[in-house]
């Protein structure tokens, strides 16, 4: 079954602040029952990047921590 990611304004804004790029867009799919199936799609000017929540180190109770972990997974 296909999974659809939705544009996340909050995640997009935080990534734009961290990268300095106004071209970054972040889409999120969150599976409430299976977090390992949750993922991000990050769109830049020349790439589309898929990152599973399982690939990110983050504090589960903090959305900011999740986005910071996403940034680290892609850019560091």
From TrEMBL:
Write down what this protein is called: Uncharacterized protein
Organism lineage: Bacteria, Bacillati, Bacillota, Bacilli, Bacillales
């Amino acid at each position: 079954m296909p999974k659809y990611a939705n544009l996340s304004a909050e995640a997009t804004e935080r990534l734009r602040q961290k990268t300095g790029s106004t071209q970054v867009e972040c889409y999120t799919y969150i599976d409430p029952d299976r977090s390992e199936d949750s993922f991000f799609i990050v769109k830049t000017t020349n790439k589309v990047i898929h990152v599973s929540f399982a690939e990110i180190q983050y504090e589960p109770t903090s959305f900011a921590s999740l986005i910071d972990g996403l940034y680290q997974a892609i850019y560091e």
